[in-house]
């Protein structure tokens, strides 16, 4: 089973990343989706999307290996798990699926590959305070984008303007920082943790 990475950020925050090396049939056999989940999968017309969905659920399963649970999405599309006191988040990127949980509050996870195309859209998501440390570099722009996606998933309620309402501070040497979600003039601050393995960027906001 290609569990790519599993780690605790704190005692209450854990994540896992699944590297997709199996066929769709193999993933189905490993995961054993419920009838409701099979209906969800049937809505994806592209095979790689089904494989990414399955890999993210397998990543989640490694976080709760001996527990029975269901995952449902709310009206805003945010996933929730049927375990008391637990918040989850899910992400996909080409070839990978990821999941994270927190037992202390909301959480967001995002995984991204470095792509040169991010240079062309940087103006759409960069806050003025982020431009100096972004240095117009692909790796740092991807860090910022990844963090904002994680914050957006953590928030999970309404549309947010990435350049105005999501603000990420420069990371320290441990790749830790803070991120703000600004709504109606009120700023909520969350912890941000980045890591990068084999070229895959991962960020958690919690």
What key phrases describe this protein's structure?
four-stranded antiparallel sheet; alpha+beta; single chain; globular; 11 strands; 7 helices; 206 residues
Distance between the termini: 28 Å
Rough shape? globular
Number of separate strands: 11
Number of helices: 7
Helix content estimate: 25-40%
> Structural class of the secondary elements?
alpha+beta
In terms of DSSP E residues, the strand content is 25-35%
| pLDDT < 50 stretches | none
Order of helices and strands: EEHHHEEEEEHHHHEEEE
Oligomer description:
single chain
Summarize the main sheet: 5 strands, antiparallel
Plain-language structure description:
The structure is a single chain. The protein is α+β, with helices and mostly antiparallel strands. Helix content is 33%, strand content 33%. It is built from 7 helices and 11 strands. The chain has helices at 24-31, 35-42, 47-63, 118-125, 131-134, 138-155, 162-165; strands spanning 3-8, 13-19, 71-73, 79-81, 87-93, 96-102, 108-113, 166-168, 176-183, 186-197, 200-205. The strands form 3 sheets. It has a 5-stranded antiparallel sheet with strand order 7-11-10-9-8. Helix 1 (24-31) packs parallel to helix 3 (47-63) and helix 4 packs across helix 6. It starts with a strand and ends with a strand. The mean pLDDT is 97.
Condensed summary:
33% of the residues lie in helices and 33% in strands.
Q: How would the blueprint of this fold be written?
A:
Blueprint lengths: L2 E6 L4 E7 L4 H8 L3 H8 L4 H17 L7 E3 L5 E3 L5 E7 L2 E7 L5 E6 L4 H8 L5 H4 L3 H18 L6 H4 E3 L7 E8 L2 E12 L2 E6 L1
Helix pairs in contact: 1-3, 4-6
């Amino acid at each position: 089973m290609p569990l790519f990475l599993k780690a605790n950020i704190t005692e209450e925050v854990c994540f896992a990343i699944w590297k997709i090396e199996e066929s769709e049939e193999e993933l189905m056999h490993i995961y054993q989706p419920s009838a409701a989940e099979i209906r969800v999968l049937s809505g994806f017309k592209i095979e790689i999307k089904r494989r990414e969905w399955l890999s993210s659920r397998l990543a989640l399963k490694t976080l709760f290996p001996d527990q029975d649970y269901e995952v449902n999405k709310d009206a805003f599309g945010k996933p929730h798990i049927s375990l008391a006191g637990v918040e989850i988040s899910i992400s996909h990127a080409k070839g990978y699926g990821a999941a994270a949980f927190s037992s202390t509050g909301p959480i967001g996870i995002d995984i991204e590959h470095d792509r040169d195309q991010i240079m062309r859209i940087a103006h759409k998501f960069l806050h003025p305070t982020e431009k100096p440390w972004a240095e117009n570099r692909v790796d740092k722009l991807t860090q910022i984008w990844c963090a904002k996606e994680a914050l957006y998933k953590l928030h999970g309620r309404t549309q947010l303007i990435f350049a105005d309402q999501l603000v990420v501070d420069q990371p320290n040497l441990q790749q830790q920082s803070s991120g703000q979600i600004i709504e109606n003039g009120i700023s909520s601050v969350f912890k941000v943790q980045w890591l990068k393995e084999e070229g895959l960027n991962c960020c958690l906001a919690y």
